[in-house]
């Protein structure tokens, strides 16, 4: 009797401003047969229909709430450690194509440390302040084509 092949697990990460796109990509990846994990806040945005980042990033108005950001980071790090691969959804932000911010860089570093494949949806701008660090993690650039993600 043949064993059912386990779905490849992929964890999505992105700036919160790109979470609407993360949710659309989640559905496309599921149709391709992947098991997909998304950031907690992306799920909350879907459930509420409120995609305004300021609704969720409350720590800027009240620094006592930075513990919430800490919790969110730890929860996503757990998903990355358990997942099979990481996909960075790097949509344009602040006038920069292929934007990757500090939080996403830390998520990439967790995947790198765990020897997980790191896929990046779009090319990264050389003007990105953390370009050197992103490139040092040896990501696989998809140039917008998620079908390039290995399924094994």
Descriptive notes:
This protein has 152 residues and is an alpha/beta fold. The chain is 40% helix and 11% strand. The protein has one domain (9-148): Rossmann fold. It has a five-stranded parallel β-sheet with strand order 2-1-3-4-5, sandwiched between helices. The longest helix has 17 residues, at 66-82. The model has no long low-confidence stretch (mean pLDDT 93).
The side-by-side strand order for the widest beta sheet comes to: 2-1-3-4-5
Helix proportion range = 40-55%
Low-confidence stretches: none
Work out the helix count.
6
Determine the mean pLDDT. 93
Indicate the radius of gyration in whole angstroms: 15 Å
| Bulk shape | globular
Kindly state the number of beta strands. Answer: 5
Which architecture would the CATH scheme give at its second level? 3-Layer(aba) Sandwich
Major sheet description: 5 strands, parallel
| Class by SSE composition | alpha/beta
Terminal CA distance: 21 Å
Could you list some keywords that capture this structure?
five-stranded parallel β-sheet, single chain, 40% helix, 152 residues, alpha/beta, Rossmann fold, 6 helices
